[in-house]
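Researcher: For the record, we're logging two predictions in this thread. I'll number them. Prediction 1 follows.
Model: Prediction 1, sequence and structure:
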Amino acid sequence: MASRRGPLVYIVLAATGQDVRRCRQCDCCILDDDLVARMDLLPSEVMQAVRQDDERALTNRTIWVCADADPDGMICPEGLDLHAIMAVLREEARRRGLAPGGP
């Protein structure tokens, strides 16, 4: 497993400029019911895991499901760029060897 580079909240912030601590946990960002059906965590739960530096932020199915999502299907009322955040989490999962199918 690759060494840690620091708390996930700061990895995301450094890579995207997005501060996941702004997430209000409202789940208003999900506009596509088909997308939700494929998720194991809601985006708000992923953001909470990032804030807690919980490995679930990197081992969930949601970050991979969001890769295929239409950007118009996930819009954060706080203006967070969910696609950019999820992309950083996917990359960090790959870096740590936590991606589905290995590194």
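Researcher: Logged. Prediction 2.
Model: Prediction 2, sequence and structure:
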Amino acid sequence: MSQLDFDTHNAFNLDEIYSVSGFLSLCHSTIENNIPT
């Protein structure tokens, strides 16, 4: 694997991780907002 492929692969993985983290944060916020206090 070339260095460029390696860098691109890492960037893609980071994008996936951030997307999942953002999605979970959004779900968590929605759940908290829907819980009656």
